[in-house]
Amino acid sequence: MELNEFEQSDKLARAEKQVKELKGFYIHLLVYILVNAFICTITTMARMSSGESFSEAFFNLGTLSTPFFWGIGLAFHAAKVFNYSPFFSKDWEERQIKKYVEQEKKEADKYR
User: Residue 8 pLDDT more than 90?
Assistant: First the structure.
């Protein structure tokens, strides 16, 4: 009976951790949207006041660099929270394990 209680508390702890990570991601996303909207608005308005058109002011490397680079970090945060790994998936891990087990068998068979 204790094992079952331990398993349940372990599942609960993992679920709580996952919810905490998800909440952290959503807070990160909200801050990203609010801060970058503010930065883009202020930068665009400042450039427009110096004589640039809206499209020249908004579609500028200086205006969009912060959202772009921060967006890369946000994408990695999302990949971690949602367990997305295109390069090192479970299938990849299993293939690598099988490959190394086969190599070990071949090496062991050489010396028999």
Answer: no
